[in-house]
Amino acid sequence: MVNKTRESAIKALEFNPHDLACEELRHVYRGKNSSILIVLFCGSVAASMLAWDIGWQYAGAWYAWLLLSHAWHWWLGRLDFVSANVSIELARINRHIMAAAMAGLGWGALSIALPFLGRTSSSAILIIMFIAVIVKLPRLVVFLPIFFAFAAGVYVPLLLSTPFLDFETLHMVLVILVVVGATLWASASEIRKILIDVLLKQVSSEQASWEDRLTGIGNRRSFDAHLAATWMQASRAQVPFSLMMVDVDFFKKFNDSYGHQAGDDCLRQVAAALDGCVRRASDSVTRYGGEEFAVVLFHTSLSEARNISDHMLAAVQKLNIRHEQSPHDIVTISIGIATMIPGVETNMQQLVEEADKCLYRAKENGRNRAEWQMLSH
Q1: CA distances for 232 relative to 59, 77, 296, 347, angstroms
Q2: pTM
Q3: Residue 330 DSSP label
Q4: Which of 29, 213, 305, 373 could in theory staple to 242 by disulfide, Cβ–Cβ 3.0 to 4.6 A?
C-alpha cells in the first residue's frame, strides 16, 4: 500500500524518482543531534564496561572505531543536507549506503567482545547496543537502502558471534533479536508511511513554489535548479549548451502608458509565445525577473539556438501587442545567446554573464534582435 501510494503520488506530481530519493536521503539527516548524543553516551558507557572486563586497549580501539564510522556518516549527510537545491549523484548515494553500513558495524563490532565477557556484562552490552540501534533505525527507515545497510552492519557480526556464546547469552540474543526485530519492523513501516506522506506534501509544495504565478512558467528558482542540472548533463556528455537571456523592449514605458494590468497581460502573452518555441523536454523557458526571461537549451549548438531565437522574435511580433512608445510600434524582445561546451575550467556563471553581455549588445544595436557569442572551453 505504501509503495502504491508513493508511486501514484510521484506520477501525479510528475516528480523525478531520483530527486525524490535525494529528498528521502536528506530527510535521514534531519535532526540528527539527538542521535549524536546517544552514540556518545551509549558508546562511552559500553566502552567503560569493556575497559573494566577486558581492558582499556580494546575498549579504546572499539570506541574510536564507533566514533570514526559515525563521523563519516554524519559528515556525508551534512554535505548533502546543506546542498538542498542540488540533486545528489548516484555515486554519492552509494557512499551514503556504505557509510551507513560502517556506522552499523561500529555497534556490531561490540559482538566480538561478547564471548570474553561475563554474563552480566554481556547482558548490559546487548541492552546498550539495542537501545542505540532502536533509536537510530526508525529515522533511517525513510530511505530503505540506508536502513538495511545499517541494520546489516549491526546484525551480521552479532549473528556470526552466536556459535561462541554460552547458552544463556545466546538465548538472550535470540530473544532480543526476534522481539526487537518484529517491534521495530512494525513501527518502522508505520513511520515510513507517515514520513513519505509528509515528504510528498513537501515535494508538492516545492513544485508549486517553482512556478511563476503571473506567467505560469518556471520562476527564478526553477531556472537555477534546471540550469545546474542541465549544466552537469552537458558537462558529462561534452555536448553544446546554450543559454538565452530575453528582455521585453521598453517594458517600463509600456507599463507607464497602458498600466500594470496591461503589463501583466503582456508578460503572460510573451511568456506563452516563448514557451511555444521550445519543443524538447530538456529545454525550459523561465521568468528570470521582471520583464526578463531565460531559456536553457541542452545539447543545442549556436546555429540551432539562433534558429530558435528567430522563431521567438517572430512569435512575439506576431502577438501584435500595440506599443506606441516603441520605435517598432508593437511589443518586441531582445535576445542574448551564449553557447559553450562545458569544460573543467568553465562554470555556469561565465555562461550567464556572457548571455547578459549579448543581451546588452542587442539592446545597444537597436533591439528587436538577437546577438550571440560562442565560448571556448
Answers
A1: 46, 21, 13, 10
A2: 0.49
A3: B
A4: 305
